[in-house]
């Protein structure tokens, strides 16, 4: 990504074609409910976290659906981001492609319908061994604790889906790739194939640290992919955990960004860009040799309904500007706009059209 100003006189820079943005990840149905501290304590949850479900959480899923105000939304981190990118772009439809695995069941049908409504070109690997994955979003105030039961999402197979000629053709059509770190727990070999393709063809490969547990327990696959990462996203907690796992010996977020930027890189034609969001505090990004702070949009605390999806929305907004070849500052501005819209609504949902200029 260049630092030059895009040619704003022509308005949008590039006429986008279908399948320019490629995403691959865990398609999940979000089951969202407002809970209390007792509920969190009962299942040993932190108010603001993302974890994978264990046996002890089985009852959580049974209990949360019985809550009076439960909402179902199509979710999954990467799928959220490509949907938001498509929403920001509006036309043409199907600029965004998405791959992931679902079950042949009612929840799977909902995800297919929702992807279609969002005009995302979703190609799911469908299998009937495991049911479609779900994510319990336990909301308390402006915190969200996410518990993901991957189920079918965990069954994605490179040779059964990604390697098929018709699917790989869609991968090759893209110019920008985005895969959340969450998918490292499922199919690192699929990520590597896509990342290498991007690197070999000087295209842009983006990744997200996604959650502290990824750096802690999936450090090996994460660092296997890192040399191919052109743009790395994360939030302040994930950045701190990553720094600790890599022995950076600093908790200064700007310094963590710089050290992350300087990790080994395969395609030297593109300098790595590192972007760390910090909730209501400034977003930190590496710009060339500098680290710059970008303030987020002001929002009244009372207007925040639910921060679930804010990080995904930021990435989605960012990607929508990136595929249009806008400068980094513009990508961040688009990310801030999208996140600001999403936190005013339940789940990762959005109004009919964006109002972004």
TrEMBL record:
The active site is at residue 312. The keyword Protease does not apply. Gene3D superfamilies: 3.30.1110.10, 3.40.1190.20. One of its GO terms (biological process) is purine ribonucleoside salvage. Residues 39-351 form the Carbohydrate kinase PfkB domain. Its EC number is 2.7.1.20. The keyword Protein biosynthesis does not apply. Pathway: Purine metabolism; AMP biosynthesis via salvage pathway; AMP from adenosine: step 1/1. PROSITE patterns: PFKB_KINASES_2. Keywords: ATP-binding, Kinase, Magnesium, Nucleotide-binding, Nucleus, Purine salvage, Transferase. It is found in: Nucleus. It catalyses: adenosine + ATP = AMP + ADP + H(+). One of its GO terms (molecular function) is adenosine kinase activity. ATP dependent phosphorylation of adenosine and other related nucleoside analogs to monophosphate derivatives. Belongs to the carbohydrate kinase PfkB family. This is Adenosine kinase.
């Amino acid at each position: 990504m260049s630092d030059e100003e895009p040619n704003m006189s022509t308005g949008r820079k590039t006429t986008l074609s279908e399948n320019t943005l490629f995403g691959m990840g865990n398609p999940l149905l979000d089951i969202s409910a407002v809970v209390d501290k007792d509920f969190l304590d009962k299942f040993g949850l932190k108010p603001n976290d993302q974890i994978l479900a264990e046996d002890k959480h089985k009852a959580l899923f049974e209990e949360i659906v019985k809550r009076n105000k439960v909402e179902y939304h199509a979710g999954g981190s990467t799928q959220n981001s490509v949907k938001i990118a498509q929403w920001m772009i509006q036309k043409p439809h199907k600029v965004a492609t998405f791959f992931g695995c679902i079950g042949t069941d009612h929840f799977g049908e909902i995800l297919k319908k929702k992807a279609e409504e969002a005009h995302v070109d979703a190609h799911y690997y469908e299998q009937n061994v495991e049911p479609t994955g779900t994510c319990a979003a336990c909301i308390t105030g402006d915190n969200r604790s996410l518990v993901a039961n991957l189920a079918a999402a965990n069954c994605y197979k490179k040779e059964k889906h990604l390697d098929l000629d018709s699917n790989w053709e869609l991968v090759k059509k893209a110019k920008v790739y985005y895969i959340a770190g969450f998918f490292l727990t499922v199919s690192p070999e699929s990520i590597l194939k896509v990342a290498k393709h991007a690197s070999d063809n000087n295209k842009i490969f983006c990744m997200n640290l996604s959650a502290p547990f990824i750096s802690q327990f999936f450090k090996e696959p994460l660092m296997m992919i890192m040399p191919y990462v052109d743009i790395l996203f994360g939030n302040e907690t994930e950045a701190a955990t990553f720094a600790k796992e890599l022995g950076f010996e600093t908790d200064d977020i700007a310094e963590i960004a710089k050290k992350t930027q300087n990790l080994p890189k395969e395609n030297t034609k593109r300098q790595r860009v590192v972007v760390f969001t910090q909730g209501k505090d400034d977003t930190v990004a590496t710009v060339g040799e500098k680290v710059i702070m970008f303030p987020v949009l002001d929002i009244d605390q009372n207007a925040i309904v639910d921060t679930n999806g804010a990080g995904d929305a930021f990435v989605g907004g960012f990607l929508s500007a990136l595929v249009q070849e806008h400068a980094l500052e513009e990508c961040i501005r688009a990310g801030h706009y999208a996140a600001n819209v999403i936190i005013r609504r339940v789940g990762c949902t959005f109004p009919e059209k964006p109002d972004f200029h």
